[in-house]
Design a protein that fits this description.
The complex is a heterodimer of chains A (133) and B (547).
Chain A lengths: L3 E4 L3 H14 L5 E4 L2 H10 L5 E4 L8 H10 L8 E5 L4 H9 L4 E4 L4 H18 L5
Parallel strand pairs in A: 1-2, 1-3, 3-4, 4-5
Chain B lengths: L5 H24 L8 H14 L3 E7 L3 E8 L5 E3 L5 H7 L3 E3 L12 H4 L6 E8 L5 E9 L7 H54 L4 E8 L5 E9 L1 H7 L3 H4 L4 H4 L5 H13 L3 E8 L4 E10 L5 E7 L1 H46 L5 H30 L7 E4 H11 L1 H6 L3 E4 L4 E4 L1 H17 L8 E8 L3 E8 L32 H11 L3 E5 L6 E8 L4
Parallel strand pairs in B: 13-15
Antiparallel strand pairs in B: 1-2, 1-6, 2-3, 4-5, 5-6, 7-8, 7-11, 9-10, 10-11, 12-14, 15-16, 16-18, 17-18
Helix pairs in contact in B: 2-5, 10-11, 14-15
Classes of the chains: A alpha/beta (133), B alpha+beta (547).
């Protein structure tokens, strides 16, 4: 079972994310899928992850649709789903929270920034927070 | 005469009252001062013949005189009421008979008896209308005493009754002709009004159609018949009036939706007017209409149609360009930033992994890449902000400029103090503007003054307000480095940053573009006063409807 399901279509962003987790919190297991459709497949066929980290703009099923599907399904709606996007557009932020995103984070500008994100995600969601089973 | 005598007063009052009752019907007869009438002359002739007296009169008595509608044996056409025997007859409302005035205590001292014409004989019958008003008399007089037999008196009384009868008929005829006249007048006025409204209906540029509803046996609205339409409606339908009036609406406009018919049925039922926009399409039309439907006095439907296809097209065009702008903003916020983030990120990773293996020159080059990335990131942010500016929404309210400046000077207190600058303003009054946008604009202008301050003198920024009949003008003046004349034309352009600012890293060249967008969104403008020496002045003008 993976601790975090990362939904990210961009290879470069994937590098930053996986590198940051590996460097700061190497014990945490991560699975990366390429888009929302793959994420839904994964959730169907694998043990559920503890946290989902998803990009917004992706081909096929995008982050918004994925978020909607996750939060509509009784099976998955308890999983903290964090939107992780380049966009700081007001409408994007509003609409994600309206769809019950658990948090909205903008992508940092530097590898150090990604490391901080990895660290705080692990600290908050996987250490301090009590999650539903 | 003892005016204070209460009985006299009471009798005066009742006299006035009875006069009112008497005079009103008299006037409404419209007999006074009219030409002689053979019907009345026949009566006076008969009265003279019956009585044997030389003078016979039909008198009408108004407030001050006796006027003779018919007179036999007398030249006068009227006489003063005060002197008249007839006044007695009217007051008494019964016949007065004086066989010999000299022997009659009531009249022996009368001027007409004592002086010429020395009247000796008088017999008068009051003319009493149906409503009881005694309006005049039939009387006979003579200068010698005369006795009337019971028979003579009876015939004279008959003649008086006939006179009243003729007057009654006359009055009826008069009333009829007056009613007819007023009817004619009213009809003419009605015709005029009809013509007036018809011409409005005809010439109104918006199509108007009156439709009579047709109900099925169950009482549900089934269809309409067009009963009237104006020229504009004919033009809209492309048919002459005779081909429209009498037609079934369902045949003219086969694609009218059921829902619309239901709305119309409701208007007819409740009488509550309805206005809505409707897109109608069939083989002849592909148009948008604004429809105002109301019920006429006789339960038909009045439709007023305004073609709004062009307006709708413009609106949707506007919406498309808004959407395009939105997607532009989204492209900026995501698609441009992502690769930029990667460039910067990987440069950092390379630096980290290569570590000491990097030469100083290589490290310098990488520094250039990083600086370029930061610069590009700021530009994108500014561009994104600008794209959003295109959609400024102004929510104006009364803003106290002095309060606003108070806030601003607090905010700029520290940066100003750091460079020894001052910000001055004094009693600016109120403006009608969007407070948030106004704040942003003034903040940009003050920020500009700070950035382009002169190192030679302490910075001084002054904000002042002028008001003309049509505009409120806010001036922001500083004593900074000013703007070179050849740059004036470009100063509001997007990304034109101008001569090197003192604090150039924060200058994105967007501040003034924003200011202009804000001013324009208020229907105003901003310009640079080219005449300022040793500094610069920005002049923001708002139309007075806003400020």
């Amino acid at each position: 079972m993976s601790d975090i399901l990362v939904v990210e279509d961009n290879k470069a962003d994937e590098v930053f994310i996986t590198r940051a987790f590996a460097k700061r919190v190497p014990d945490i297991s991560i699975t990366v899928v390429r888009n929302g459709a793959d994420a839904l497949d994964y959730l169907e066929t694998h043990p559920l992850p503890k946290v989902i980290l998803t990009d917004l703009k992706m081909p096929r099923v995008d982050g918004r649709q994925l978020l909607k599907r996750i939060k509509q399904s009784a099976k998955t709606r308890h999983i903290p789903t964090i939107v992780f996007s380049t966009s700081d557009d007001f409408d994007d932020v509003q609409s994600c929270y309206a769809q019950h995103a658990n948090a909205y984070m903008t992508k940092p500008h530097s590898p150090k920034g990604y490391e901080k994100v990895a660290q705080s995600l692990a600290d908050y969601w996987l250490a301090q927070t009590v999650l539903a089973q | 005469m003892g005016r204070a005598d209460p009985e006299a007063l009471i009798s005066d009052e009742s006299h006035i009252l009875s006069e009112v009752v008497r005079l009103k019907p008299l006037r409404s007869l419209s007999l006074l001062d009219t030409p002689s009438d053979p019907r009345f002359d026949q009566i006076t002739n008969l009265a003279a013949f019956v009585s044997g007296a030389p003078i016979a009169l039909i008198s009408l008595v108004d407030e001050s005189r006796l006027w003779f509608k018919s007179k036999l044996g007398l030249k006068l056409s009227e006489t003063a009421r005060a002197d008249a025997f007839c006044d007695h007859t009217i007051s008494a409302k019964k016949p007065v008979y004086v066989a010999d005035a000299q022997g009659d205590a009531r009249f022996s001292a009368h001027p007409l008896v004592v002086d010429a014409p020395h009247v000796r004989f008088y017999a008068g019958w009051p003319l009493i209308l149906e409503n009881g008003a005694a309006i005049g008399t039939l009387c006979v007089l003579g200068t010698t005493p005369r006795l009337l037999s019971t028979e003579q008196k009876a015939r004279l009384s008959d003649l008086a009754a006939m006179t009243v009868d003729i007057i009654g008929r006359q009055s009826l005829a008069h009333a009829r002709s007056q009613a007819l006249e007023s009817l004619e007048e009213k009809t003419a006025a009605l015709d005029g009004a009809r013509e007036y409204y018809r011409s409005i209906f005809k010439h109104l540029t918006d199509p108007l159609v009156v439709q009579e509803p047709i109900f099925d046996d169950a009482g549900a609205l089934k269809d309409f018949i067009i009963r009237a339409c104006n020229d504009a409606a004919c033009v809209l339908q492309g048919l002459p009036r005779e081909k429209l009036v009498g037609q079934f609406v369902s045949e003219m406009l086969p694609n009218l939706p059921k829902k619309l018919m239901q709305s119309y049925a409701e208007v007819i039922q409740t009488g509550t007017p309805l206005t809505f926009e409707h897109h109608y399409e069939d083989q002849h039309y592909d148009d948008w209409f604004r429809v105002a439907a109301s019920r006429t006095h006789n339960g038909s439907l009045l439709l007023q149609l305004t073609t709004i296809t062009d307006q709708k097209n413009r609106e949707s065009q506007l919406q498309r360009s808004r959407d395009a702008l939105n997607s532009f903003a989204s492209v900026i916020s995501h698609d441009l930033r992502t690769p930029l983030g990667h460039i910067g990120g990987f440069v950092e990773l390379l630096e980290e992994e290569l570590g000491d293996a990097l030469t100083d020159t290589q490290r310098e080059y990488m520094g250039y890449i990083t600086a370029g990335v930061s610069q590009m990131r700021r530009l994108i942010k500014a561009l994104q902000k600008h794209a959003r500016l295109g959609q400024i929404e102004v929510t104006p309210k009364v803003v106290n400029l002095d309060d606003l400046m108070g806030d601003l000077s607090q905010r700029y207190d520290y940066p100003l103090a750091k460079v020894g600058g001052t910000l001055r303003y004094d009693r600016l009054g109120k403006v009608f503007a969007d407070d948030v946008l106004l704040d942003q604009m003034l903040s940009n202008l003050i920020g500009n003054s700070l950035r382009y301050r002169s190192e030679d003198r302490p910075l001084q920024i002054t904000v002042s307000v002028d008001r003309t009949e049509s505009e409120t003008i806010i001036k922001v003046t500083d004593n900074g480095r000013g703007i070179p004349p050849d740059y004036h034309a470009r100063v509001f352009n997007l990304f034109d940053r101008g001569p090197e600012a003192v604090d150039h890293k924060n200058a994105m060249g967007l501040g003034l573009t924003t200011c202009r967008a804000i001013a324009k969104a208020h229907g105003g403008d901003i310009e640079l006063d080219g005449t300022t020496i040793n500094g610069c002045t920005f002049i923001v003008s708002f139309p007075r409807r806003y400020a």
